UniProtKB/TrEMBL annotation:
Coiled-coil region(s): none
Source species, domain of life: Bacteria
Full protein name: Enoyl-CoA hydratase
UniProt GO MF annotations: catalytic activity
Length: 251
């Protein structure tokens, strides 16, 4: 199903990124499928909470750099983030392993983030000469402040789950052995909660903290288009594929 597995379990819609061989890297069909599923959940009264997780060793390692099926991926990624923010029901992210590149704003757009100790969050875009996308430039400053957001965007530093929790980036940090139990407890709690109340709460919080999301995404998309045409991007992709250090020239 375009790299997405979906199951409805009572009032919970469980969506799983399902490309474990690619560490759940996303391409355009996968993003389109995810946006469609989130849109359907928004108008389905039988769904009262959504769980977003990744299969295998990672939550999501970002965009698929193979170059196949990636036309329009930036706008598709933006639609997914907006669908999560606008969905009038709680969306819970269960994160283990990498939430890197687009995987980082994908997780942080969710209302509640439950992270295992193995989780880390990384804006890896600068490693290939790109800039953050998916609305990361709007999401992160509101969570951790401009200084830390800039640090993540410019250094591509891995922020491990314990630090992410200390910074206020995520909602829950679990132990090694109770990740699944804590995730399920959180999910069942919101699924049994006052759904209409949650919807209005999300709407108010988005108006307060994410009123510029679409404008920021437009700048990110414009920047990505410009940067994809640079020598630095081409060098970044070559270095990634060849597993070597990059030699950026600033052009």
């Amino acid at each position: 199903m375009n790299g997405i597995s979906v199951e409805q379990d009572g009032a919970v819609l469980r969506i799983r990124l399902d490309r474990p061989d690619k560490l759940n890297a996303v391409d355009t069909p996968m993003l389109d499928e995810l946006a469609a599923r989130l849109g359907a959940a928004a108008v389905d009264d039988s769904v009262r909470a959504v769980l977003l997780t990744g299969f295998g060793r990672a939550f999501c390692s970002g965009g698929d750099l193979t170059g196949r099926d990636t036309a329009g991926a930036a706008e598709a990624a933006n639609r997914v983030v907006r669908a999560i923010v606008a969905l009038p029901k709680p969306v819970v992210a269960g994160v283990h392993g990498a939430a890197a590149g687009f995987g980082c704003p994908l997780a942080l757009a969710c209302d509640l983030v439950v992270a295992a100790p193995s989780a880390f969050f990384q804006l890896a875009f600068s490693k290939v000469g790109l800039m953050p996308d998916g609305g990361a430039s709007a999401l992160l400053p509101g969570l951790i402040g401009r200084a830390r957001a800039t640090r993540m965007a410019m250094t591509a530093e891995k922020i491990h789950a314990a630090t992410a929790f200390d910074w206020g980036m995520i909602s829950y940090l679990t132990g090694e052995d109770d990740y699944q139990a804590v995730l399920e407890d959180v999910l069942q709690s919101v699924a049994a909660g006052p759904t209409l109340s949650f919807g209005w709460t999300k709407r108010a919080l988005a108006a307060a903290a994410l009123d510029q999301l679409e404008a920021v995404q437009a700048i990110e998309a414009e920047g990505q288009v410009a940067l994809i045409g640079t020598d630095d991007f081409r060098e970044g992709v070559r270095a990634f594929r060849e597993r070597r250090a990059t030699e950026f020239r600033g052009r």
